[in-house]
Write the structure tokens for this entry.
Amino acid sequence: MNKQIKVSQFKKIMLENGKLFFSKETERKFFFFMTIIMLVMGIFVKLI
């Protein structure tokens, strides 16, 4: 039952069999920006 997912360089977000898949690059960018947002929010909370 091993199903291989074909990853295209052009597809950043894929929906297959009701599951959402991200490319490595998209996942890295998402978590990078979320980390920066959390850092800025933490600094903002400390200043108040």
Remarks:
- The two ends are 54 Å apart (CA to CA).
- The longest strand covers residues 13-16.
- Helices lie at 24-47.
- The longest helix spans residues 24-47.
